[in-house]
Design goal:
The chain is α+β, with helices and mostly antiparallel strands and 333 residues long. The protein folds into 2 domains: 152 residues, Elastase, domain 1; 165 residues, Neutral Protease Domain 2 (Neutral Protease, domain 2). α2 crosses α3. The radius of gyration is 19 Å and the shape is globular. The protein starts with a strand and ends in a 6-residue tail after the last helix. Bound molecules: asparagine (ASN) and zinc ion (ZN). Zinc ion (ZN) binds next to α2 and α3. Keywords: Hydrolase, Metal-binding, Metalloprotease, Protease, Signal, Zinc. Belongs to the peptidase M4 family. This is M4 family metallopeptidase.
Length: 333
């Protein structure tokens, strides 16, 4: 049967009113993004396996901003996948997670009051819980971009999810999530260097992680040290997240989009920023060209310097300040 590529309107819990790519078949629209490799969004209806039910609709107007409307979480997940697809396509020239133009899929309403979201290499899909008391779905833009980026990492460097490579894998997801958020920079979710600031995961409104000073969460590390590979990958990611902040914005106090940051350096020397776009381009090129499954912090430094040399030249100010940002997290000198 003929399928037409359409653009629907939706209202998510976090992204507000957005347009989402849909597909029309007969008189019914489906949450299948025809312009982005047919990426699909499914309703698991509390199940913890399978794909559940593809979201469909009679008028191509989806969700109402309330979590009680089943489509609302679907809108945010679909929008997150769409924004992340567009970011990789428009900024890095990458078409889809594998770079082959083929969409993956998202599943929302996983389990009961499940407070997490995850990427799974086996289904090559993203999954989102509904949060504590099924009140704050884990479907914010940065969380979606984080999970989808796990797919990009799996399809490229393949950073193993343990030891220092595991921290770099996690940081890659946080870094690209921040880049996606800044790229969209919508009034309802302006770009920031916070992770999960909208999902109220602790019940006190605080974000899950901070990139300017990762130790603000009480667990993540600001700088590299010998042995950091033995802590949880969501905390050994701290120094690389901190590298991205330092490279993007520089050390010290700064306000970006109304959020105050204050980033220290390991050696107390100042870091001059290269800018967020250069930092993201360097990280992406390092990930896709030079990092491997066992890359550690020292290897990540080398990979980004090679990437900076490719993109900007070894005599560039950008190259020098890329290295200075690594010194700021006690990697290299
Ligand atoms: N939300 C977590 C993550 O993407 C799930 C996990 O720990 N695997 O890292
Ligand atoms: Zn992750």
């Amino acid at each position: 049967e003929h399928q037409a590529i359409e653009t629907g309107t939706g209202t998510g819990q976090y992204n507000g009113q957005v347009t989402i790519g849909t597909t029309k078949s007969g008189t019914t629209w489906a949450m299948t993004d025809g312009g982005r490799g047919n990426h699909k969004t499914y309703d698991l209806k509390g199940a913890e396996d399978g794909t559940g039910t593809l979201f469909t609709d009679a008028d191509d107007v989806w969700g109402n901003g309330q979590q009680s409307n089943r489509q609302t979480a679907g809108v945010d997940a679909a929008y997150g996948a769409q924004a992340t697809w567009d970011y990789y396509k428009n900024v890095h020239g990458r078409s889809g997670i594998k770079g082959d133009g083929v969409g993956a899929y998202s599943r929302v309403h996983y389990g009961d009051s499940y407070v997490n979201a995850f990427w799974d290499d086996d289904c090559f899909c993203m999954t989102y819980g509904d949060g504590d008391n099924n009140a704050n779905a884990l479907t914010s833009l940065d969380v979606a971009a984080h999970e989808m980026t796990h797919g990009v990492t799996a399809a490229t460097a393949g950073l193993e999810y343990s030891d220092e490579s595991g921290g770099l894998n996690e940081a890659t997801s946080d870094i690209m999530a921040a880049a996606v958020e800044f790229h969209v920079n919508s009034a309802v979710d302006p770009g920031d260097y916070l992770v999960g600031e909208k999902i109220n995961i602790f019940g006190d409104g605080k974000p899950l992680r901070y990139m300017d000073k990762p130790s603000k969460d009480g667990r993540s590390k600001d700088s590299w040290y010998s042995g950091i590979g033995s802590i949880d990958v969501h905390y050994s990611s701290g120094p690389a997240n901190h590298w991205f902040y330092l490279a993007s914005e520089g050390s010290g106090a700064k306000v970006v989009n109304g959020v105050s940051y204050n980033s220290p350096t390991a050696d107390n020397l100042p870091v001059t920023p290269i800018g967020r776009d250069a930092a993201a381009r360097i990280w992406y090129r390092a990930l896709t060209t030079y990092m491997t499954s066992t890359t550690d912090y020292a290897g990540a430094r080398t990979a980004t310097l090679k990437a900076a040399a490719d993109l900007y030249g070894t005599n560039s100010v950008t190259y020098a300040n890329t290295a200075n940002a690594w010194a700021g997290i006690a990697v290299g000198s």
